[in-house]
Amino acid sequence: MPVQSPTKEGQAAKLPSPESERGVSAFVQPVRDFLAKLWALDVRSLAVFRIALALVILFDLAIRASDLEVFYTDFGLLPRAPYLQNFADQWFISIHMMSGTFFVQACLFVLAAAFAIFMLLGYRTRLFTVLSWFMLISLQSRNRMIMQGGDDLLRMFLFWAMFLPLGAVYSVDSALDTRPQPRKPANWCVFSPATIALLAQVVMLYWFAVSYKTGAEWRSEGSAMYFALSIEQMSTPIGRLMLHFPQVLLRFMTFFVLAYETLIPLLLLLATGPFRAAAVLLIILLHLGMGTCIKLGPFPWVAAAGISAFLPAWFWKVMSAEVQRPKRLEIYYDGTCDFCKKTTALLRTFLVLPTTKVMAAQESPDPLLREEMDAHHSWIVVDEAGKHWYRFEALTLVVGYSPLLRGLERIMRWKAVRSLGEKAYLWVANHRPQLSRAVSFLRYRPNVTQLNLAANVFCAAMLVLVFFWNLQPFAPRLRLTDRLRVVAFLFRVDQGWDMFSPYPLKDDGWYVIPGRLNDGREVNLFPFAKGEPLPWAKPAVIGDMYPNERWRKYLMNLYFVENERYRLYFGQYLCRDWNRNKNVRDNDALVTFDIYFMKRINQPYPYPPKTSKDLIWHHQCFDLPAPPQAPANSANQKKAGQ
Q: Which domains does the chain have, with CATH numbers?
């Protein structure tokens, strides 16, 4: 059910008021209408935003799950005991701290994925958006050494999403809505504190990112992009290719990035109609384009998902010319089958067939439909020519009418696919009572998406808090009180957009970890190069040493002096990982090792990097006993006694 703009609701009732109130209303209402025209969000765009956010969460969980033992269990890099003792913030909430076992952590990952899937489908949308946000902040609070800007942005988008009507359309909630469905919604847009907050979050992201970039590399020299692409652990093949054009292309790109981060908010704040649609699509393409040059982890995908919420109503008006095409399609189902009723409602919603007539055959004025349904043991789909279709062929026809899946119709007509589809349909038809019980949790209910006054006030208050949080580094006299900081930490709205600031990182390099076994042999302990020769010489591509962005971020953070306390637990993990099936008496048990960072400090073009070999940690796996002394002879004992 689309959400009507509050401006329309405000116009619905006109009560007499004093002259002063009339004067205020005469001034406020036009301003409010003007801002609503600029900053209202289309509920169809919010549905895309919901789906994109849920997909990003699922993708993020899949990447994190590949290193579940390493990053989230007590066997891994940071067990709970030292984390709670030395690194945890008392106001960060994390149910991932309940256990350090692999099984419990895997269950929490599965639970988070289930919440994200329900959010994607739009089932109990607000509830599962809140639960997805909670699971995300819990996961992120478990190990902050692998965090990056994309994680902060995802967390904030999900926070504001809790206050938005994400399930108003294209959702299970809207498909099972019991309220009367208007044929043509009066207004597809919503304007509220949450829509302002989402827009303000994007504006703050870019404008504060520009404000942090104060180095000469950004402001005068124009060398920032050269240094950014020179970080070999982050650059892609395309990025390394661009290093061949430092004086013209990369200098232009440096100032282009500054202009881009300055003008993007203006486009979102002021552009409407086709200009705003073009701005949204351009922003998405630019983010994904940056991701082809620099390994930014989830950041480009998170940013693209967030920007999709700002697709204007004009975009959907153009799209609806195809979606709302005047083709006649009717679907009749068995009214005694709850599974059939819900399935047809969901098909109409998710295949984007809003003009399709869906009705129980028992309610049809044609009494022959019920007999026809019983004879074919099937639902009935009537096309625009009046022809009746049954079973899997009917589903193929419905899919062919969908503007989203029209190309799938040809595949569904293949002989092998059609044969499997017919068998699947017959199985479903023969198990309708069981399937009806299975979907009994999908209840028909009003899809209420509006928030009450208290929720809107809280959302507005959190937006003010977020603004002042971002403003603190630029206003030395401004410092949030301890209570406000506690609120920010509890809801995890803490954030910082100082990426590549005040200038891009110039330290690059790779790790060499030589280990000594019990029998004196030397081995390579780098987690992804065990058994290979020690890489004292520079690898062909430094970035290829890391399997994903999480590991790269962790190991680079480990190098910085402010994180040296984490090195002890990394060392203990390397010992546990190598010696998990050995004991101290085994010849191939790991005894001791050193961690070297082969540092490369990037220099301005055309000078080569400065290199150094830095020992950042020495670790001993066992407390070895002192060597035994030679037994004393009787003469020595006698002399000692004297």
A: 39-212+301-307+452-471+482-489 (no CATH), 325-438 (3.40.30), 507-620 (no CATH)
